[in-house]
Amino acid sequence: MQKLLERLIEKHLPTTRYGKCAEYIPVLAEQDPSQLGITVVTKDQKVYQAGRFPKRFTLQSISKVIALMLAVMDNGDRKVFSKVGMEPTGDPFNSIYNMEMMKWKKPLNPMINAGALVVTSLIKGRTAREKAGRIIRLIEEMTGSKEIEVDEEVFRSEYETAHRNRALAHLLKELNLIDRVEETLEAYLLQCSIQVTCEDLAKIGLCLARYGQTFDNRMVIPVYVSRMAKTFMVTCGMYNESGEFAIKVGIPAKSGVSGGILASVPMEMGIGVFGPALNEKGNSIGGVALLEDLSRELDLSIF
Known about the structure:
Layout: H1 2-12, H2 26-29, E1 36-42, E2 47-52, E3 57-58, H3 63-75, H4 77-80, H5 97-101, H6 113-122, H7 128-143, E4 149-150, H8 152-160, H9 163-174, H10 181-192, E5 194-196, H11 198-209, H12 223-236, H13 242-248, E6 253-255, E7 260-265, E8 269-274, H14 285-298
Antiparallel strand pairs: 1-2, 1-8, 3-5, 4-5, 6-7, 7-8
Helix pairs in contact: 1-14, 3-6, 3-7, 3-12, 6-9, 6-10, 7-10, 8-10, 9-10, 12-13
GO biological process, one term: L-glutamine catabolic process
Binding site for substrate: 61, 113, 158, 165, 188, 239, 257
Organism: Thermoactinomyces intermedius
């Protein structure tokens, strides 16, 4: 495994020159686009790492998976999905268009920004910080880490430039899908700004692969919730590249615009990838290529 990861990193490092870092979030635009790394944690708790990546980076949209699981555990799936749909979309993750055009006025799924704002509003907590704190505690349970926290610089950068997400939140308020615009927006941006390591991502992936059981055999997510999360990762987790990713890679995955990708191979392994150079769909260009080859070499596709 170690030699395979090192070989694939060397092969796909040149790919990073064809992408670019997220520019609409000033702090993320400052990342080194030439970085590419991967961590794999297997079912027998072996950890393999290769490549070059920072100690910590922010979850961004990967946090949508954690928030969804927590919201369902807090409210039950019936309440959550009365306010957000279950269908994939071919539109960009931050689109306002589909909210305007759909006959049924709710976001198509929890992995686009509009749906994620609704989901975050349903997490129990008196304040935005309390909601974000509960997401952090769930990540700590899934990973065993006690070093999960918000990157305040990234949060401030996102909050000051969140014009489209603020517009989405106001539209959701008009549709009676959320109550408090600024509190919901703050909680959502706090969850996006949570810092993790590549190993943390892999351990989250392994927890999902084991249907809610951590690498040290603690049950922290109900089986049906972990199964639901992985299904959304397959159908909606890679933005409007999800269908192509499912065909070429074939494993549940969720990306974020910081360059992270969380992937989960049922009953086998969790995978964390980081590569901040993004393709036009907002996914790590090197990370997607890396996972495609890894899946082919190890026959990981669930299909």
